[in-house]
Design a protein that fits this description.
Layout (H helix, E strand, L loop, with lengths): L1 H23 L9 E3 L4 E6 L2 E6 L3 E11 L3 E10 L4 E9 L8 H20 L19 E5 L3 H17 L3 E4 L2
Parallel strand pairs: 2-8, 6-7
Antiparallel strand pairs: 1-8, 2-3, 4-5, 5-6
Length: about 180
Amino acid sequence: MFRKTLLLLLAGLVAGSVQLNAQDAPTTTDKPGDSPGPNRFWQASLSGGHYMVALDRISAVSRHKYLLDGAVIVDEVTVDALGQALARFYFISPVTDAAPGNAVGEIAKRGRELVEKAADRVGTDAQNMVIKKYPETSHSRTIEFRILSEKELTALYSSVRSAWESGRGRQFSAK
């Protein structure tokens, strides 16, 4: 009887300590597409390629929007690292997207859908690639990636910023 009580008490203590340890474990703030990565690095795997930078080499992280040629709105995240390359991650949308409910916006949306369907049939991803017009948009020492949604750009910015602020490596991925 004493032995049975002792075993039940011991089992209760073990179960309680496991529960306490689980409560002490740090909570994860991983978001879709973002996970812990190699300790000293932030990296991004995107449809246009892969980017990796040492956290102690990052000198600035920024996000800003601008109107380009009166036709598109560029939402851009830049990662400036000590060295000779600046990484730019951007999402572009037609200026008509800023005016919801108008006929021009609906026509532009339908046009994008048709271009995407045609590209799927042909097997090309050209509509999602970085856009450059030589020599105007050719930036030496600039690494550029086009992000396909504002939501993914926000997640990327959050990932690189939290990695830089915490000093803990992160790995971000998007299509």
